[in-house]
Amino acid sequence: MAAHGNKMSKYLDERLAGLQAYVPGEQPQDKRYIKLNTNESPFPPAPGIEAELKRVYARLNLYPDPDMAELRDELAALCGVCRDNIFVGNGSDEVLAFCFLAFCGTRGARFADITYGFYRVYADLCRISSRVMPLDGDLALKPEDYIGSDETVFIANPNAPTGLLLSLEQIDAIAGSTDAPVIIDEAYVDFGGETCLPLLKKHDNLLIVRTFSKSRNLAGGRIGWAVGSRALIGDLNSIKFSFNPFNVNMLSQAAALCSLRDKAYFDSCVTAVKEARAFAADRLRAMGFEVIDSHANFLFAAPPGMSGREYYLRLKDRGVLVRHFPGERTGRFVRITVGTRAQMETLVAVTEQICKE
Ligand SMILES: *Cc1c(COP(=O)(O)O)cnc(C)c1O
Questions:
Q1: Which of the four, 48, 56, 278, 298, has the lowest number of CB atoms within 10 Å?
Q2: If you measure from the C-alpha of residue 354 to the centroid of ligand 1, how many angstroms do you get, rounded to a whole number?
């Protein structure tokens, strides 16, 4: 907890004394950075949202719809499933937290050593035992590590912070090999991953988690969701209605609906990010960087001749903020969120300066 500047009080439950809380990427409020550190979209929310929020504002004296019928129907239509197959949470972080609460108490959890950092934190918070499976030498996930798992499986696909993918066949094999729930976190799937939606018909232990934070330009709205069998979704609803029935506020529900209804805007933003990603990856490789082949809206890149931390600090000095993950296997790299083409051009220009010094 020290990372958040709090010393524990003497009143804190002793069992939480060792909790190492998640440390989110910096959200600097002082100086204006080119902000490429938390995988947000560089583009504004869908244009229709502003007017819709004004309309909803008039109803803010009332509680929102706890069933989120309209939003769940729209998401169900997107996936070709029914409303009862959809759960919506306050960011996918909340959906994931509910999964740890609902599915891991007796089974435990299994996930990779290098993946979304919150899996470890939720497991610790809920006092769930976890089996942590090391990525291979190329930082790829080893699918065989999850075959026949006794624990509930959590896989980010594409993985973060590497951007690497498992194939549908590999997910299919994992889900078919165990009775435990298999949670596939598709936070980045819209940027070039392959969704495992088609596998839902085959596996009632499979749950897919998605978010509006990355590809839908709504990180500040805090909207995440899950699609899976009625039984799994029912379990998540039991948790939600035992915790906070109004977990997604009215403004966010309205924003999410608008985003889903403007497919052209969504497509244009995702295409722009993919083009900017290809441009930045090419240019960094030409400068001697090792850049992992990314299927997400970020690049995991190791600079030549300096550590990841040094590159991170030098970029920050020049007003470009990226994320560094200290650690034996990740310390060489930084994770660069893909912004607009203009932002990527600045990143490349600043990097050329840094490499010349
Ligand atoms: C960003 C991210 C999330 C959290 O997204 P929110 O919906 O903003 O809570 C979940 N999983 C992964 C892998 C992420 O990168």
A1: 278
A2: 31
Whether pLDDT at 2 is above 80: no
Ligand 1 contact, 151 CB (< 6 A):
no
Does residue 213 have its Cβ closer than 6 Å to ligand 1? yes
- Largest Cα separation within the chain, whole Å, is 59
Alpha helices in 164-262 (DSSP H): 168-176, 230-241, 250-261
**Quick check: 350 and 339 in contact, CB under 8 A?**
no
Q: How far apart are the first and last CA of the chain?
A: 38
- Per residue in 283-299, pLDDT tens? 999 999 999 999 999 99
DSSP-derived letter for residue 51 is H
Could you give the angle at the alpha carbon of 125 between the alpha carbons of 333 and 67, nearest 5°? 100
Is the CB–ligand 1 distance for residue 254 below 6 Å? no
Residue of minimum CA distance from atom 12 in ligand 1: 187
If you measure from the C-alpha of residue 183 to the centroid of ligand 1, how many angstroms do you get, rounded to a whole number? 13
Reported as a single tens digit per residue, the pLDDT across 192-222 is 989 999 999 999 999 999 999 999 999 999 9
Model pTM? 0.96
